[in-house]
Design brief:
By secondary structure, this protein is an all-alpha fold. The chain has seven helices and no strands.
Length: about 190
């Protein structure tokens, strides 16, 4: 089987969360090493990346460090990875639920995705600033993805990230992942 290269020039920076989901699907559908992918990897990667984002903030869990400062460069990379993990996770649960053909579950998933899209696309400017990474992880584990997402947005705002900057970071990361796919690395 010959893998076709993904032409990055055919894609543009997302401006809405739905476009992040669409871009992520391109990556997820084209991994060259899909056989290594196991259920749960995305969830674990998301939690890991949230914790690693925390490690680059003054509110990190390294209580023994005297100088806990914000490392924007490292935090930028983690935000991009978090958004990639979130989009992958949302796409996978959406696809799984649609296959089950359960209208009640499908409606719940659809409403959850719509809330996430609305929080990011329309309500981002109204969301308060607060470092709520721990509650985000707890809510994610409890299956409350839409509330976990809102807590992430509060945290990103706490560290002065704009919606546009988050989308730019994600798109840069997406292009890097596509290049790795095109080389057969992932």
């Amino acid at each position: 089987m010959v893998n076709l290269k993904i032409d990055i020039s055919l894609f543009k920076k997302p401006i809405k969360f739905k476009e992040v989901l669409d871009l992520q699907k391109v990556i997820d559908d084209n991994y060259t090493r899909k056989e290594n992918f196991k259920n749960g990897f995305v969830s674990m990667s998301l939690i890991k990346n949230i914790i690693e984002f925390n490690e680059n903030t003054p509110n990190n869990h390294f209580y023994y460090e005297n100088n806990r400062v914000f490392n924007k460069g490292k935090a930028d990379k983690k935000i991009a990875e978090i958004f990639s993990n979130l989009a992958s996770f949302i796409n996978s649960i959406y696809e799984e639920k649609i296959k089950e053909n359960d209208p009640e579950k499908n409606f719940h998933i659809f409403m959850m995705i719509k809330k996430i899209e609305k929080d990011f696309d329309e309500s981002f400017s109204k969301i308060g600033k607060e470092d709520t990474l721990l509650t985000s992880i707890i809510k994610f584990i409890k299956g409350k993805l839409e509330y976990s997402f809102t807590d992430l947005l509060k945290t990103f705002k706490e560290y002065s990230y704009s919606k546009d900057e988050i989308l730019e970071l994600y798109f840069d990361f997406w292009k890097m992942q596509v290049n790795r796919i095109n080389k057969g690395e992932i």
